[in-house]
Specification:
The longest helix has 14 residues. The protein is mainly alpha-helical and 140 residues long. The protein has one domain. β2 and β3 form a beta hairpin. It has six helices and four strands. The strands form two sheets. It has a two-stranded antiparallel sheet with strand order 1-4. Strands 2-3 form a two-stranded antiparallel ribbon. The radius of gyration is 15 Å and the shape is globular.
Length: 140
């Protein structure tokens, strides 16, 4: 049995999400990039519990590769949250999706010219990823 997230874990996760500057003038054309978005276990637990019909539940999401070396070798697959070429959980999207559009690494830059209100450095992006990896490690 997978332990539900505590309120503190959810607050920590959402605070990290809020540190990513929003995209301004999004044209909604990046849906082709919405495939195999690996997420951190805390995000998988949250999204699987909140959206069980779209994800198959927490257990199903936790079976998928999480962020790490294996994520780069995945074959493309549609994101379960992509509906009519739009993110159906935009406010709850994982950190890696929020970082899309940030020029942290060349492959995260939006190919359609959408931009962010301010840029994160590569170190800031790495720090957010590290903090998210630790966000669900509360001992029950």
């Amino acid at each position: 049995m997978i332990r539900p997230l505590t309120r503190a874990e959810i607050r920590r996760m959402k605070k990290l999400w809020a540190k990513v500057p929003p995209i301004t003038g999004c044209k909604g054309l990046c849906w082709e990039s919405c495939a195999n978005a690996p997420m951190h276990p805390v995000e998988a637990r949250y999204l699987g519990a909140k959206y069980p019909r779209q994800t198959g539940g927490v257990e199903r999401l936790l079976e998928l590769p999480i962020l790490g070396p294996r994520a780069e070798t995945l074959e493309p697959a549609d994101c379960p949250f992509l509906v009519n070429r739009r993110c159906s959980i935009y406010e709850d999207r994982p950190l890696v999706c929020r970082l899309f559009g940030q020029p942290l690494l060349g492959h995260l830059r939006c190919p359609y010219g959408c931009d962010t209100t301010h840029k994160l450095t590569a170190q800031q992006g790495a720090d957010l990823m590290t903090a998210m990896a630790q966000a669900g490690n509360e001992v029950s």
